[in-house]
Amino acid sequence: MIPLATEPIQRLSRRPPERRWLIEDLWAEEAVGIVGGEPKCGKSFLALQVAVAVASGTACLGRFPAARPGRVLLYAAEDPPHLVRERVEGICRLAGAAFESLDLHLLTRESLRIDLPDEQSALGATIEGHHPTLLVLDPFVRLHRADENASSEISPILAALRALQRKHALAILVVHHAKKAAQHLRAGQALRGSSDFHAWGDSNLYLRRERERLTLSVEHRAHPPIGELGLTLRHDERGTGLVIDDRHPATDTAPTTTPGARITDALERATRPLSHSELRAAAKLRTQIFCQHLSALIERGKVVKTTRGYRARTNDCAA
User: Fold this and answer.
1) How far apart are CA 53 and CA 159, in angstroms?
2) Are residues 64 and 122 in the same domain?
3) What is the reported pLDDT for 20?
4) What is the per-residue pLDDT across 240-267, written as a single tens digit (0 to 9) for each?
5) pLDDT (tens digit, 9 = 90+) per residue, 201-243?
6) Is the predicted pLDDT of residue 104 greater than 70, yes or no?
7) Which of 12, 43, 78, 144 is deepest in the core (most CB within 10 A)?
8) Which H/E stretch holds residue 197?
9) Domain boundary at 200, 218, 244, which?
C-alpha cells in the first residue's frame, strides 16, 4: 500500500495578498461558489456583471475592482444567445467596458449535463482549450437530473466541479435558486435543496427582494464578510444592470460601502494619523470586522501603521 503524501506546514507556500481576490471583496481568486436568490431577483444579471468585470478588468457594480482579469467561459442554459449578447452589451455600456474586445466566450450547446462523466470530461476539455479565469454556469437546475434535496446525488456533482477548479486553477460561479418565501432564513440556509450547496461555496453572493428593495449579501470561507448592500436594476441609455443604491441601504444600520472602503475613506478624510479606537469609531464598524479588515489593508499595503497611528498609504508615504 502506497502511503499518502504529506508536507511540513512550514514548507507550504504563501499566497501574496494581491493574488487573493478575483474581484476585490466580492469573489476570492479560484473560488467556487453560488449566486443565489429567489426567481426574478437579478441573479443572472449579477452573474453576467461578475463575468463582464473579469473579462474586461472593470469594477463590478461600479465599486468592486477586478483584481485578476482574464477569460470567462459562460453557459447560459435558459437564455438564447441573442439575449445574452444584448444583456452583455448593456452591462458593458454601464460599466464603461469595451464590448468588442471583451474576452468572454459563450458555450453554445443546447444542453450540458454535469452529472454525467462524459459531459464532465467535455467541459474539462473545453476549459483546458480556453484556459479561462472564470467559469459561469447559469442555472444549476438545468445542468443535471439529480434530486437536489439528496446530498448523495448533489455532492458528487459539486465534487466534480471542485475537481475542475483545482485541476485548472480557475474560479467557478454557479447560479442557483433559493426557496420561495425564505426571507426569515439566513441567506445560505435559504438555498434550495441540499445543505451541500452552502457548504461547497468559497465565495457566495445572495440576492433578496422585499417589495421594491433588493439587497446583496456576501460571504467568504477565508475572508471577512462585507455589510449588506442595497441594489437597483438600472435600465436607461447608459446601459442595463444592477447598481449599488446608496439612497436606499439594505437596512437602516447596514453599511453602504465595504468595511475596507470605510476604513480607507476615514483615513483619507483625516488630517493626522488616527489611533486604533479613533479609526474604528470613524469607520463605524464592529470591533471584530474592523480588526479583520484593518489587518488585511495593512497586509495589502493600503494602510500604514506608524508610531503616531494609522494612515492611508500614499506615493510618498514611508512605511
Assistant:
1) 27
2) yes
3) 85
4) 899 998 765 544 444 446 788 889 888 9
5) 999 999 998 777 899 999 999 888 787 899 999 888 888 899 9
6) yes
7) 43
8) helix 196-200
9) 244
Amino acid identity at 276: H
Which pLDDT score, from 0 to 100, does residue 314 have?
Answer: 67
Looking at residue 4, the DSSP 8-state letter turns out to be P
Residue where the block lists cell 433588493: 214
Using alpha carbons, select from 296, 202, 260 the residue that is nearest to residue 63. Answer: 260
Task: Please say whether the beta carbons of 176 and 191 come within 8 A.
Answer: yes
229 belongs to a structural domain: yes
Coil, helix or strand at residue 142: helix
- CA-to-CA separations, 13 to 9, 19, 20, 48, 202, in angstroms, rounded: 9, 13, 13, 33, 20
- Helices and strands (H and E) in the chain: how many: 8, 13
CA R_g for the chain? 21
Structural domains in the chain (count): 2
177: domain CATH number? 3.40.50.300
Render pLDDT for 30-57 as a digit per residue (tens, 0 to 9): 999 999 998 889 999 999 999 999 999 9
Say yes or no: 232 and 291 in one domain: no
The answer as to whether 155 is a domain residue is yes
C-alpha cell at 53: 468585470
The three three-digit cell numbers of residue 46, written as one number: 449579477
Which residues are within 8 A (CB) of 284 and not within 5 positions of it... i.e. 6 or more apart?
Answer: 255, 262
Grid cell 469609531 in the structure block, residue: 281
Are 204 and 219 within 8 A, CB to CB?
A: yes
Angle between helices 43-56 and 81-95 (to 10 degrees): 60
